[in-house]
Amino acid sequence: MTSTDLVITTLRNLGTELELAGLAAPTPDLPLFGAGSVLDSLALVTLIADLEARLADLHGHPVILASESAMSRARSPFRTVATLAAYIDEQAAAAPAS
Amino acid sequence: MSEVILITGTRKGLGHALAEHYLAAGWIVAGCSRGAGTITHERYTHHELDIADDVAVATMVRATARAHGRIDALVNNAGIAAMNHLTLTPSATARRILDTNTLGTFYCVREVAKVMTRARRGRIVNFTTVATPLHLEGEALYAASKAAVESFTQIAARELAPFGITVNAVGPTPIDTDLIRGVPADKLAALIARQAIPRRGEPRDVINAVDFFLQASSDFITGQILYLGGITR
Predict the structure, then answer these.
(1) Mind telling me how many Å the CA of B138 is from chain A's nearest CA?
(2) What does the pLDDT look like over B101-142, one tens digit per residue?
(3) What global pTM score does this model have?
(4) What DSSP state is assigned to residue B201?
(5) B115 and A56 in contact by Cβ < 8 A?
(6) What DSSP string describes B140-199?
(7) pLDDT digit string (tens) for B4-40?
(8) Which CATH class is domain B4-227?
């Protein structure tokens, strides 16, 4: 499963659970926060927690997506499905996050 | 189904008493300490780690969530103190106090909150101390580290309330544990004399306060700092 698939699957599950129709068929350019996003701040926090849990199971070590490097960037990696997936790939290539 | 509680600092003292209490009450208990565990029970799992190690904390929390599918409560009991005049406090001691008491509490709350937000429910109890409101001489950094825990507790309560998670703190008076081993008897007596109820605290006093915060009907109580012995701000 690619990171894009992982984010899309997680979003779809979240959409079902929170009854958010806008998450029925997420696409790579779907905005995850700000204008045009169907996620409110609580849903975004839940999405990141879900992804971290799935990635930890996948890699066998804890993964912290809200890392120093993510938070200090001028352009947040959490903007869209595609940018988040790219960031996950980048994290996976690095050592276990702290 | 048994409820799952994570308690830090369970090797001895108050943490040990809390773990024994919740095991007796039927909970599944995950505990941790820097040393080996001292509790043997079919519903107890021990993790040997330093709570100031964020990766180790995340690993413990994930392991607990994976094993039981949930974490219902977190009790951040682990803490260290080092009584000394501020001019005589080594930098390494200062860092260790802040790392364990303040950052350790933060790491545990951050990781457990990720599990609890999923469940849309949870109870978190942090530990502060009466040394903070009493501005106790000789405990400058310890009291400051717990003042930070109090502030963190109150803001975490607001950030986590939308997820059905309550965050409170209990501030025990001196209890016979390793934490106060280095405190001179006259200093302890003077401290206890400032309490409304001037007696030494016992583990049951703290357990009672934690029980109160954990009970299901306490879902409207969050961001509160509960000092024992009648100490107030």
Answers:
(1) 34
(2) 999 999 999 999 999 998 999 999 999 999 999 999 999 999
(3) 0.93
(4) B
(5) no
(6) HHHHHHHHHHHHHHHHHHHHHGGGTEEEEEEE---BSSGGGTTS-HHHHHHHHHTSSS-S
(7) 999 999 999 999 999 999 999 999 999 999 999 999 9
(8) alpha beta
Nearest CB to A96; choose among B55, B66, B162 = B55
CB B17 within 8 A of CB B210: no
Q: Which domains occur in chain A, in start order?
A: 3-93 (1.10.1200.10)
Residues belonging to chain A with any Cβ–Cβ distance to chain B shorter than 8 Å: 42, 45-46, 49-50, 52-53, 56-57, 61-62, 64, 96, 98
For A53, the closest chain B residue by CA position comes to B62
Cβ pair A26, A8 in contact under 8 A: yes
How far CA B169 is from CA of B51, B206, B226, in Å, comes to: 18, 11, 6
